[in-house]
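pinned: reference chain
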Amino acid sequence: MSSAPSPASPPAAGTRLLHDAAVNRDTAFSARSRLALGLHGLLPPAVETLEQQVARVMDNVRRQATPLDRHLYLRAVHARNETLYYRTVLDHLEETLPLIYTPTVGQACQEFSRCFQSPHGLYLTAEDRGHLRELLRRWPRPGVRVIVVTDGSRILGLGDLGANGMGIPIGKLDLYVACGGIPPAACLPIMLDLGTDNTALHADPFYLGRRQPRLQGAHYDALLAEFIDAVQEVFPGVLLQFEDFSNEHAFALLGRYRGQLCCFNDDIQGTGAMGLAGLYTALRLTGGTLAGQRILFAGAGEAALGIANMVTAALVAEGLSEREAREHCWLVDSQGLVVAARTDLNAHKRPFAHTHAPLQDLAAIVAAVRPQVLIGASGAAGLFSEAVLRELARHCARPLVMALSNPTSRAECTAEQAYTWTEGRALFASGSPFAAVQHAGRLRAPGQANNAFIFPGVGLGLLASGATRVSDAMFFAAARALAGQVSAEDLAQERIYPAAPRLRQVALAVAQAVAERAWDEGLAHQPRPADVAAAIAHLMYTPRYAPEA
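pinned: its C-alpha coordinates
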Protein backbone atom coordinates (compact mmCIF):
# COMPACT_ATOMS: atom_id res chain seq x y z
CA MET A 1 0.00 0.00 0.00
CA SER A 2 1.67 3.25 -1.18
CA SER A 3 1.55 6.51 0.72
CA ALA A 4 1.04 10.00 -0.72
CA PRO A 5 4.14 12.13 -1.26
CA SER A 6 5.21 14.23 1.68
CA PRO A 7 4.55 17.96 1.34
CA ALA A 8 7.61 20.05 0.58
CA SER A 9 6.60 22.80 3.01
CA PRO A 10 5.72 22.49 6.70
CA PRO A 11 1.95 22.24 7.32
CA ALA A 12 1.91 25.56 9.19
CA ALA A 13 2.85 27.43 6.00
CA GLY A 14 0.01 25.83 4.09
CA THR A 15 -2.46 26.57 6.85
CA ARG A 16 -1.51 30.24 6.73
CA LEU A 17 -2.25 30.31 2.99
CA LEU A 18 -5.72 28.90 3.58
CA HIS A 19 -6.40 31.67 6.10
CA ASP A 20 -5.17 34.54 3.90
CA ALA A 21 -8.14 35.67 1.81
CA ALA A 22 -5.89 37.60 -0.58
CA VAL A 23 -4.09 34.46 -1.82
CA ASN A 24 -6.32 31.56 -0.84
CA ARG A 25 -7.73 29.52 -3.73
CA ASP A 26 -9.48 26.86 -1.64
CA THR A 27 -10.21 23.84 -3.85
CA ALA A 28 -8.65 25.55 -6.89
CA PHE A 29 -5.09 24.83 -5.71
CA SER A 30 -3.65 22.31 -8.16
CA ALA A 31 -2.31 18.97 -6.98
CA ARG A 32 1.23 20.15 -7.69
CA SER A 33 0.75 23.36 -5.73
CA ARG A 34 -0.75 21.47 -2.83
CA LEU A 35 2.43 19.41 -2.58
CA ALA A 36 4.74 22.37 -3.04
CA LEU A 37 2.93 24.60 -0.55
CA GLY A 38 2.28 22.04 2.16
CA LEU A 39 -1.44 21.88 1.43
CA HIS A 40 -1.70 18.17 0.65
CA GLY A 41 -4.22 16.65 2.98
CA LEU A 42 -5.60 20.02 4.10
CA LEU A 43 -8.17 20.17 1.29
CA PRO A 44 -10.62 17.73 -0.25
CA PRO A 45 -8.91 15.87 -3.14
CA ALA A 46 -11.00 17.38 -5.95
CA VAL A 47 -9.37 20.25 -7.86
CA GLU A 48 -11.90 22.80 -9.13
CA THR A 49 -11.91 25.74 -11.50
CA LEU A 50 -12.92 29.21 -10.37
CA GLU A 51 -16.11 28.81 -12.40
CA GLN A 52 -17.03 25.64 -10.48
CA GLN A 53 -16.41 27.41 -7.19
CA VAL A 54 -18.63 30.32 -8.24
CA ALA A 55 -21.42 27.87 -9.09
CA ARG A 56 -21.16 26.34 -5.61
CA VAL A 57 -21.23 29.75 -3.93
CA MET A 58 -24.34 30.79 -5.83
CA ASP A 59 -26.02 27.48 -5.08
CA ASN A 60 -25.43 28.11 -1.39
CA VAL A 61 -26.53 31.74 -1.64
CA ARG A 62 -29.85 30.63 -3.08
CA ARG A 63 -30.31 28.08 -0.29
CA GLN A 64 -30.22 30.74 2.42
CA ALA A 65 -33.56 31.62 4.00
CA THR A 66 -33.39 35.43 4.03
CA PRO A 67 -31.53 38.26 2.27
CA LEU A 68 -29.55 38.91 5.48
CA ASP A 69 -28.51 35.23 5.59
CA ARG A 70 -27.36 35.54 1.98
CA HIS A 71 -25.43 38.70 2.83
CA LEU A 72 -23.69 37.00 5.74
CA TYR A 73 -22.84 33.94 3.66
CA LEU A 74 -21.21 36.13 1.01
CA ARG A 75 -19.31 38.04 3.70
CA ALA A 76 -17.96 34.71 4.97
CA VAL A 77 -16.78 33.88 1.44
CA HIS A 78 -15.07 37.28 1.25
CA ALA A 79 -13.24 36.63 4.53
CA ARG A 80 -11.99 33.29 3.20
CA ASN A 81 -11.30 33.80 -0.51
CA GLU A 82 -11.25 37.32 -1.94
CA THR A 83 -10.89 36.32 -5.58
CA LEU A 84 -13.82 33.91 -5.40
CA TYR A 85 -15.99 36.52 -3.71
CA TYR A 86 -15.42 39.22 -6.31
CA ARG A 87 -15.70 36.78 -9.22
CA THR A 88 -19.07 35.67 -7.86
CA VAL A 89 -20.30 39.24 -7.41
CA LEU A 90 -19.11 40.31 -10.86
CA ASP A 91 -20.60 37.28 -12.65
CA HIS A 92 -23.96 37.67 -10.85
CA LEU A 93 -24.25 41.42 -10.31
CA GLU A 94 -28.00 41.65 -10.68
CA GLU A 95 -28.54 38.95 -8.05
CA THR A 96 -25.76 39.84 -5.62
CA LEU A 97 -25.88 43.65 -5.72
CA PRO A 98 -29.06 43.88 -3.59
CA LEU A 99 -27.40 41.50 -1.10
CA ILE A 100 -24.04 43.21 -0.63
CA TYR A 101 -25.41 46.74 -1.11
CA THR A 102 -28.87 48.29 -0.94
CA PRO A 103 -31.30 47.24 0.32
CA THR A 104 -29.82 44.39 2.41
CA VAL A 105 -26.82 46.39 3.62
CA GLY A 106 -29.22 48.51 5.68
CA GLN A 107 -30.38 45.54 7.73
CA ALA A 108 -26.81 44.24 7.83
CA CYS A 109 -25.74 47.52 9.46
CA GLN A 110 -28.57 47.37 11.97
CA GLU A 111 -27.49 43.82 12.87
CA PHE A 112 -23.74 44.42 12.43
CA SER A 113 -22.69 43.85 16.04
CA ARG A 114 -24.92 40.84 16.56
CA CYS A 115 -23.77 39.21 13.31
CA PHE A 116 -20.09 40.14 13.55
CA GLN A 117 -17.97 37.48 11.85
CA SER A 118 -14.44 38.76 11.27
CA PRO A 119 -12.62 42.11 11.36
CA HIS A 120 -12.39 44.12 8.16
CA GLY A 121 -11.05 47.68 7.92
CA LEU A 122 -9.91 50.09 10.63
CA TYR A 123 -11.79 51.41 13.65
CA LEU A 124 -10.55 54.74 15.02
CA THR A 125 -11.97 56.30 18.18
CA ALA A 126 -11.74 59.58 20.07
CA GLU A 127 -9.36 57.88 22.52
CA ASP A 128 -6.94 57.36 19.62
CA ARG A 129 -6.39 61.08 19.16
CA GLY A 130 -2.68 61.72 18.89
CA HIS A 131 -2.04 58.20 17.57
CA LEU A 132 -3.99 58.11 14.31
CA ARG A 133 -0.87 57.96 12.13
CA GLU A 134 0.39 54.95 14.05
CA LEU A 135 -2.95 53.16 13.68
CA LEU A 136 -3.16 53.87 9.95
CA ARG A 137 0.33 52.43 9.52
CA ARG A 138 -0.87 49.19 11.12
CA TRP A 139 -3.00 48.45 8.07
CA PRO A 140 -1.22 45.39 6.67
CA ARG A 141 -1.83 45.88 2.95
CA PRO A 142 0.43 48.39 1.17
CA GLY A 143 -0.65 50.52 -1.75
CA VAL A 144 -3.98 51.88 -0.45
CA ARG A 145 -5.49 54.12 -3.14
CA VAL A 146 -9.12 54.54 -1.99
CA ILE A 147 -10.50 55.09 1.51
CA VAL A 148 -14.21 55.21 2.30
CA VAL A 149 -14.79 56.67 5.76
CA THR A 150 -17.92 57.19 7.87
CA ASP A 151 -18.70 58.21 11.42
CA GLY A 152 -21.95 56.23 11.33
CA SER A 153 -24.08 59.26 12.14
CA ARG A 154 -26.53 59.01 9.21
CA ILE A 155 -26.58 55.53 7.72
CA LEU A 156 -28.86 55.44 4.67
CA GLY A 157 -32.32 56.47 5.89
CA LEU A 158 -31.78 54.67 9.20
CA GLY A 159 -30.08 57.43 11.15
CA ASP A 160 -27.33 57.10 13.77
CA LEU A 161 -26.05 53.51 13.86
CA GLY A 162 -22.69 54.24 15.44
CA ALA A 163 -20.01 51.63 14.78
CA ASN A 164 -22.61 49.39 13.12
CA GLY A 165 -22.33 51.74 10.15
CA MET A 166 -19.05 50.06 9.14
CA GLY A 167 -21.12 47.94 6.77
CA ILE A 168 -21.46 50.95 4.47
CA PRO A 169 -17.74 51.59 3.74
CA ILE A 170 -17.27 47.85 3.29
CA GLY A 171 -20.18 47.67 0.84
CA LYS A 172 -19.11 50.78 -1.07
CA LEU A 173 -15.60 49.41 -1.54
CA ASP A 174 -17.02 46.09 -2.74
CA LEU A 175 -18.56 48.07 -5.60
CA TYR A 176 -15.33 49.96 -6.22
CA VAL A 177 -13.72 46.56 -6.79
CA ALA A 178 -16.47 44.70 -8.66
CA CYS A 179 -17.75 47.61 -10.77
CA GLY A 180 -14.92 50.13 -10.81
CA GLY A 181 -12.12 47.60 -11.17
CA ILE A 182 -10.10 48.98 -8.24
CA PRO A 183 -7.89 46.18 -6.84
CA PRO A 184 -9.03 44.93 -3.40
CA ALA A 185 -5.60 45.61 -1.89
CA ALA A 186 -6.02 49.29 -2.81
CA CYS A 187 -9.21 49.68 -0.75
CA LEU A 188 -9.52 50.56 2.93
CA PRO A 189 -12.81 51.00 4.86
CA ILE A 190 -12.57 53.16 8.00
CA MET A 191 -15.03 53.69 10.81
CA LEU A 192 -14.56 56.79 12.94
CA ASP A 193 -16.33 55.54 16.05
CA LEU A 194 -16.88 58.82 17.85
CA GLY A 195 -19.77 57.57 19.96
CA THR A 196 -23.47 57.41 19.22
CA ASP A 197 -26.56 59.25 20.35
CA ASN A 198 -28.66 56.16 19.64
CA THR A 199 -29.56 55.14 23.19
CA ALA A 200 -30.84 51.75 22.02
CA LEU A 201 -27.27 50.91 21.02
CA HIS A 202 -26.00 51.97 24.45
CA ALA A 203 -28.38 49.41 25.95
CA ASP A 204 -27.66 46.64 23.44
CA PRO A 205 -25.47 44.01 25.17
CA PHE A 206 -23.96 42.99 21.82
CA TYR A 207 -23.08 46.48 20.55
CA LEU A 208 -19.39 46.62 19.61
CA GLY A 209 -18.91 50.39 19.49
CA ARG A 210 -18.28 53.12 22.06
CA ARG A 211 -21.25 53.50 24.42
CA GLN A 212 -20.85 57.25 24.78
CA PRO A 213 -22.61 60.33 23.36
CA ARG A 214 -21.23 61.54 20.05
CA LEU A 215 -18.15 63.69 20.05
CA GLN A 216 -19.10 67.19 18.95
CA GLY A 217 -17.78 70.72 18.51
CA ALA A 218 -14.11 71.61 18.64
CA HIS A 219 -13.08 68.11 19.76
CA TYR A 220 -14.77 66.58 16.71
CA ASP A 221 -13.14 69.11 14.37
CA ALA A 222 -9.71 68.52 15.91
CA LEU A 223 -9.94 64.76 15.53
CA LEU A 224 -11.06 65.06 11.90
CA ALA A 225 -8.20 67.46 11.20
CA GLU A 226 -5.71 64.98 12.65
CA PHE A 227 -7.31 62.18 10.63
CA ILE A 228 -7.02 64.09 7.36
CA ASP A 229 -3.38 64.97 8.05
CA ALA A 230 -2.62 61.37 8.97
CA VAL A 231 -4.27 60.01 5.84
CA GLN A 232 -2.28 62.35 3.62
CA GLU A 233 0.98 61.41 5.34
CA VAL A 234 0.49 57.64 5.51
CA PHE A 235 -1.30 57.22 2.14
CA PRO A 236 -0.12 60.13 -0.04
CA GLY A 237 -2.26 60.71 -3.12
CA VAL A 238 -5.13 58.60 -1.77
CA LEU A 239 -8.77 59.23 -2.79
CA LEU A 240 -10.90 59.84 0.31
CA GLN A 241 -14.67 59.36 0.09
CA PHE A 242 -16.81 60.77 2.91
CA GLU A 243 -19.83 58.55 3.44
CA ASP A 244 -23.00 58.82 5.54
CA PHE A 245 -22.01 61.71 7.77
CA SER A 246 -24.86 63.71 9.28
CA ASN A 247 -25.93 66.95 7.61
CA GLU A 248 -24.33 68.80 10.50
CA HIS A 249 -20.86 67.64 9.41
CA ALA A 250 -21.12 66.49 5.79
CA PHE A 251 -21.21 69.91 4.11
CA ALA A 252 -18.65 71.39 6.50
CA LEU A 253 -16.14 68.57 5.97
CA LEU A 254 -16.48 68.75 2.20
CA GLY A 255 -16.06 72.50 2.19
CA ARG A 256 -13.09 72.37 4.54
CA TYR A 257 -11.05 69.63 2.88
CA ARG A 258 -11.91 69.47 -0.83
CA GLY A 259 -9.16 71.99 -1.56
CA GLN A 260 -6.56 70.05 0.44
CA LEU A 261 -6.74 66.55 -1.03
CA CYS A 262 -8.53 64.37 -3.56
CA CYS A 263 -11.84 63.83 -1.78
CA PHE A 264 -15.59 63.95 -2.30
CA ASN A 265 -18.84 63.26 -0.48
CA ASP A 266 -20.85 60.64 -2.30
CA ASP A 267 -24.11 61.54 -0.54
CA ILE A 268 -23.87 65.09 -1.86
CA GLN A 269 -21.90 65.02 -5.12
CA GLY A 270 -22.45 61.42 -6.18
CA THR A 271 -26.18 61.65 -5.56
CA GLY A 272 -26.24 64.98 -7.39
CA ALA A 273 -24.71 63.45 -10.52
CA MET A 274 -26.94 60.40 -10.32
CA GLY A 275 -30.07 62.54 -10.02
CA LEU A 276 -29.10 64.83 -12.89
CA ALA A 277 -28.41 61.81 -15.11
CA GLY A 278 -31.91 60.51 -14.40
CA LEU A 279 -33.43 63.84 -15.38
CA TYR A 280 -31.49 63.90 -18.66
CA THR A 281 -32.69 60.39 -19.49
CA ALA A 282 -36.30 61.08 -18.53
CA LEU A 283 -36.32 64.04 -20.91
CA ARG A 284 -35.47 61.64 -23.75
CA LEU A 285 -38.84 60.00 -23.06
CA THR A 286 -40.95 63.07 -22.28
CA GLY A 287 -39.43 65.35 -24.91
CA GLY A 288 -39.07 68.35 -22.62
CA THR A 289 -36.05 70.41 -21.60
CA LEU A 290 -34.28 70.72 -18.28
CA ALA A 291 -35.16 74.43 -18.21
CA GLY A 292 -38.81 73.45 -18.59
CA GLN A 293 -38.88 71.39 -15.39
CA ARG A 294 -39.95 72.38 -11.91
CA ILE A 295 -38.52 69.93 -9.38
CA LEU A 296 -39.93 69.36 -5.90
CA PHE A 297 -37.67 67.65 -3.37
CA ALA A 298 -39.29 65.89 -0.42
CA GLY A 299 -36.28 66.16 1.86
CA ALA A 300 -33.69 68.89 2.22
CA GLY A 301 -30.58 67.04 3.36
CA GLU A 302 -27.41 66.00 1.58
CA ALA A 303 -29.07 63.99 -1.20
CA ALA A 304 -31.73 66.57 -2.08
CA LEU A 305 -29.32 69.50 -1.93
CA GLY A 306 -26.73 67.54 -3.89
CA ILE A 307 -29.17 67.06 -6.76
CA ALA A 308 -30.58 70.58 -6.49
CA ASN A 309 -27.13 72.13 -6.69
CA MET A 310 -26.17 69.89 -9.62
CA VAL A 311 -29.35 70.83 -11.49
CA THR A 312 -28.64 74.49 -10.77
CA ALA A 313 -25.12 74.16 -12.21
CA ALA A 314 -26.50 72.42 -15.30
CA LEU A 315 -29.06 75.16 -15.89
CA VAL A 316 -26.44 77.87 -15.44
CA ALA A 317 -24.36 76.06 -18.07
CA GLU A 318 -27.41 76.31 -20.36
CA GLY A 319 -27.48 80.09 -19.95
CA LEU A 320 -29.71 80.79 -16.96
CA SER A 321 -28.56 83.01 -14.12
CA GLU A 322 -27.98 81.28 -10.81
CA ARG A 323 -31.09 82.91 -9.36
CA GLU A 324 -33.20 81.77 -12.31
CA ALA A 325 -31.75 78.26 -12.10
CA ARG A 326 -32.52 77.90 -8.38
CA GLU A 327 -36.14 78.88 -9.02
CA HIS A 328 -36.59 75.50 -10.72
CA CYS A 329 -35.84 73.63 -7.46
CA TRP A 330 -38.20 73.62 -4.47
CA LEU A 331 -37.47 71.90 -1.14
CA VAL A 332 -39.66 70.44 1.57
CA ASP A 333 -38.13 69.65 4.96
CA SER A 334 -39.60 68.40 8.24
CA GLN A 335 -41.20 71.82 8.83
CA GLY A 336 -42.81 72.06 5.40
CA LEU A 337 -42.08 74.05 2.27
CA VAL A 338 -38.76 75.88 2.37
CA VAL A 339 -39.78 79.51 1.90
CA ALA A 340 -38.01 82.84 2.30
CA ALA A 341 -40.07 83.92 5.32
CA ARG A 342 -38.77 81.08 7.49
CA THR A 343 -36.10 81.95 10.06
CA ASP A 344 -35.02 78.38 10.89
CA LEU A 345 -33.16 77.60 7.65
CA ASN A 346 -29.49 76.70 7.59
CA ALA A 347 -27.08 78.16 5.05
CA HIS A 348 -27.42 75.23 2.64
CA LYS A 349 -31.20 75.46 2.33
CA ARG A 350 -31.43 79.23 2.18
CA PRO A 351 -30.52 79.64 -1.53
CA PHE A 352 -33.57 77.51 -2.39
CA ALA A 353 -35.99 79.41 -0.16
CA HIS A 354 -38.53 81.02 -2.49
CA THR A 355 -41.13 83.67 -1.84
CA HIS A 356 -44.30 81.67 -1.17
CA ALA A 357 -46.87 81.15 1.51
CA PRO A 358 -45.81 78.52 4.09
CA LEU A 359 -47.31 75.06 3.54
CA GLN A 360 -46.86 71.76 5.35
CA ASP A 361 -49.09 69.16 3.72
CA LEU A 362 -47.22 67.53 0.83
CA ALA A 363 -50.30 67.10 -1.38
CA ALA A 364 -51.10 70.79 -0.92
CA ILE A 365 -47.48 71.68 -1.72
CA VAL A 366 -47.63 69.62 -4.93
CA ALA A 367 -50.85 71.41 -5.89
CA ALA A 368 -49.26 74.81 -5.27
CA VAL A 369 -45.83 74.23 -6.83
CA ARG A 370 -47.10 72.08 -9.75
CA PRO A 371 -43.83 70.20 -10.32
CA GLN A 372 -43.07 67.90 -13.24
CA VAL A 373 -40.55 66.00 -11.08
CA LEU A 374 -41.02 64.72 -7.52
CA ILE A 375 -37.87 63.47 -5.80
CA GLY A 376 -37.97 61.74 -2.43
CA ALA A 377 -34.88 61.93 -0.24
CA SER A 378 -36.63 62.00 3.11
CA GLY A 379 -36.21 58.55 4.64
CA ALA A 380 -39.98 58.70 5.30
CA ALA A 381 -41.60 55.47 4.10
CA GLY A 382 -44.84 55.96 2.19
CA LEU A 383 -44.54 59.74 2.06
CA PHE A 384 -45.75 59.74 -1.55
CA SER A 385 -49.34 58.85 -0.74
CA GLU A 386 -52.13 58.27 -3.21
CA ALA A 387 -53.29 61.85 -2.69
CA VAL A 388 -49.79 63.20 -3.43
CA LEU A 389 -49.25 61.17 -6.58
CA ARG A 390 -52.74 61.77 -7.96
CA GLU A 391 -52.24 65.50 -7.44
CA LEU A 392 -48.88 65.28 -9.24
CA ALA A 393 -50.49 63.52 -12.21
CA ARG A 394 -53.40 65.96 -12.29
CA HIS A 395 -51.31 68.76 -13.78
CA CYS A 396 -48.47 66.80 -15.46
CA ALA A 397 -48.94 64.37 -18.33
CA ARG A 398 -45.68 62.42 -17.73
CA PRO A 399 -44.42 63.09 -14.20
CA LEU A 400 -41.08 61.72 -13.02
CA VAL A 401 -41.19 60.14 -9.56
CA MET A 402 -37.90 59.26 -7.86
CA ALA A 403 -38.22 57.51 -4.48
CA LEU A 404 -34.56 57.55 -3.51
CA SER A 405 -34.61 56.70 0.19
CA ASN A 406 -32.83 53.49 1.19
CA PRO A 407 -33.33 50.74 2.19
CA THR A 408 -36.55 49.57 0.51
CA SER A 409 -38.43 49.86 3.80
CA ARG A 410 -37.82 53.65 3.69
CA ALA A 411 -38.85 54.24 0.06
CA GLU A 412 -41.38 57.07 -0.35
CA CYS A 413 -43.52 54.81 -2.53
CA THR A 414 -43.32 51.53 -4.43
CA ALA A 415 -43.10 51.18 -8.19
CA GLU A 416 -46.60 49.73 -8.33
CA GLN A 417 -48.02 52.65 -6.35
CA ALA A 418 -46.33 55.18 -8.61
CA TYR A 419 -47.75 53.58 -11.74
CA THR A 420 -51.22 52.85 -10.32
CA TRP A 421 -51.83 56.24 -8.72
CA THR A 422 -50.75 58.16 -11.83
CA GLU A 423 -52.78 55.94 -14.19
CA GLY A 424 -49.58 54.51 -15.63
CA ARG A 425 -48.24 57.87 -16.77
CA ALA A 426 -45.35 58.25 -14.32
CA LEU A 427 -41.74 57.46 -14.99
CA PHE A 428 -40.35 55.86 -11.85
CA ALA A 429 -36.95 55.20 -10.34
CA SER A 430 -35.93 54.21 -6.82
CA GLY A 431 -32.84 53.98 -4.66
CA SER A 432 -33.33 50.28 -3.93
CA PRO A 433 -34.44 47.91 -6.68
CA PHE A 434 -38.08 47.12 -7.39
CA ALA A 435 -39.20 44.27 -9.60
CA ALA A 436 -40.75 44.96 -13.00
CA VAL A 437 -44.45 45.80 -12.84
CA GLN A 438 -47.14 44.68 -15.27
CA HIS A 439 -49.53 47.62 -15.61
CA ALA A 440 -52.35 48.02 -18.08
CA GLY A 441 -50.98 45.21 -20.23
CA ARG A 442 -47.47 46.67 -20.34
CA LEU A 443 -44.27 45.63 -18.58
CA ARG A 444 -42.57 48.53 -16.80
CA ALA A 445 -38.99 48.10 -15.54
CA PRO A 446 -38.18 50.65 -12.80
CA GLY A 447 -34.66 52.02 -12.95
CA GLN A 448 -32.49 51.89 -9.86
CA ALA A 449 -31.50 55.48 -9.12
CA ASN A 450 -28.44 54.57 -7.14
CA ASN A 451 -24.99 56.07 -6.68
CA ALA A 452 -23.51 52.71 -7.67
CA PHE A 453 -23.74 54.08 -11.22
CA ILE A 454 -21.53 57.04 -10.30
CA PHE A 455 -18.93 56.63 -7.56
CA PRO A 456 -17.07 53.51 -8.82
CA GLY A 457 -16.45 55.20 -12.18
CA VAL A 458 -15.59 58.52 -10.56
CA GLY A 459 -13.01 56.81 -8.37
CA LEU A 460 -11.56 54.89 -11.28
CA GLY A 461 -11.26 58.05 -13.39
CA LEU A 462 -9.61 59.98 -10.57
CA LEU A 463 -7.03 57.26 -9.97
CA ALA A 464 -6.37 56.68 -13.68
CA SER A 465 -5.66 60.37 -14.25
CA GLY A 466 -3.82 60.88 -10.99
CA ALA A 467 -6.21 63.68 -10.06
CA THR A 468 -5.10 65.84 -7.15
CA ARG A 469 -8.51 67.39 -6.51
CA VAL A 470 -12.14 66.62 -7.36
CA SER A 471 -14.09 69.37 -9.15
CA ASP A 472 -17.82 69.86 -9.60
CA ALA A 473 -17.25 69.70 -13.36
CA MET A 474 -16.12 66.09 -12.98
CA PHE A 475 -19.48 65.13 -11.49
CA PHE A 476 -21.27 67.06 -14.22
CA ALA A 477 -19.29 65.00 -16.77
CA ALA A 478 -20.13 61.82 -14.85
CA ALA A 479 -23.86 62.62 -15.05
CA ARG A 480 -23.66 63.11 -18.80
CA ALA A 481 -21.73 59.88 -19.21
CA LEU A 482 -24.23 57.91 -17.14
CA ALA A 483 -27.18 59.30 -19.09
CA GLY A 484 -25.43 58.30 -22.29
CA GLN A 485 -25.26 54.69 -21.13
CA VAL A 486 -29.06 54.27 -21.07
CA SER A 487 -29.88 52.20 -24.13
CA ALA A 488 -32.86 52.18 -26.48
CA GLU A 489 -33.84 48.86 -24.89
CA ASP A 490 -33.85 50.51 -21.46
CA LEU A 491 -36.00 53.36 -22.75
CA ALA A 492 -38.45 50.92 -24.34
CA GLN A 493 -39.19 49.65 -20.82
CA GLU A 494 -39.14 53.23 -19.46
CA ARG A 495 -36.05 52.45 -17.41
CA ILE A 496 -34.10 55.68 -16.93
CA TYR A 497 -30.93 54.01 -15.59
CA PRO A 498 -28.99 51.12 -17.10
CA ALA A 499 -29.62 47.58 -15.90
CA ALA A 500 -27.40 46.36 -13.05
CA PRO A 501 -25.40 43.82 -15.12
CA ARG A 502 -23.93 46.75 -17.08
CA LEU A 503 -22.46 48.48 -14.02
CA ARG A 504 -18.88 47.71 -15.01
CA GLN A 505 -19.32 49.13 -18.52
CA VAL A 506 -21.03 52.18 -17.04
CA ALA A 507 -18.12 52.67 -14.63
CA LEU A 508 -15.66 52.65 -17.53
CA ALA A 509 -17.66 55.32 -19.40
CA VAL A 510 -17.95 57.48 -16.28
CA ALA A 511 -14.24 57.01 -15.53
CA GLN A 512 -13.28 58.18 -19.01
CA ALA A 513 -15.44 61.30 -18.68
CA VAL A 514 -14.02 62.14 -15.24
CA ALA A 515 -10.41 61.53 -16.30
CA GLU A 516 -10.84 63.71 -19.39
CA ARG A 517 -12.11 66.54 -17.16
CA ALA A 518 -9.16 66.10 -14.80
CA TRP A 519 -6.73 66.50 -17.70
CA ASP A 520 -8.70 69.39 -19.22
CA GLU A 521 -8.71 71.25 -15.89
CA GLY A 522 -5.03 70.66 -15.21
CA LEU A 523 -5.80 68.61 -12.09
CA ALA A 524 -4.09 65.39 -13.21
CA HIS A 525 -0.46 64.38 -12.79
CA GLN A 526 -0.54 61.19 -14.88
CA PRO A 527 0.27 61.63 -18.59
CA ARG A 528 -2.75 61.63 -20.89
CA PRO A 529 -2.79 58.47 -23.07
CA ALA A 530 -3.72 58.55 -26.73
CA ASP A 531 -6.63 56.14 -26.11
CA VAL A 532 -8.07 57.06 -22.72
CA ALA A 533 -10.78 54.38 -22.65
CA ALA A 534 -8.36 51.58 -23.55
CA ALA A 535 -5.81 52.77 -20.99
CA ILE A 536 -8.40 52.87 -18.21
CA ALA A 537 -9.82 49.48 -19.17
CA HIS A 538 -6.31 48.03 -18.98
CA LEU A 539 -6.02 49.25 -15.38
CA MET A 540 -9.25 47.59 -14.21
CA TYR A 541 -8.88 44.65 -11.84
CA THR A 542 -10.51 41.40 -12.94
CA PRO A 543 -10.89 38.70 -10.27
CA ARG A 544 -9.02 35.62 -11.45
CA TYR A 545 -6.40 33.32 -9.99
CA ALA A 546 -2.88 34.10 -11.12
CA PRO A 547 -1.15 31.37 -13.15
CA GLU A 548 0.54 28.88 -10.87
CA ALA A 549 4.32 28.66 -11.03
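why pinned: The domain at 1-48 is CATH 1.20.1370.30 (Hemocyanin, N-terminal domain). The radius of gyration is 24 Å.
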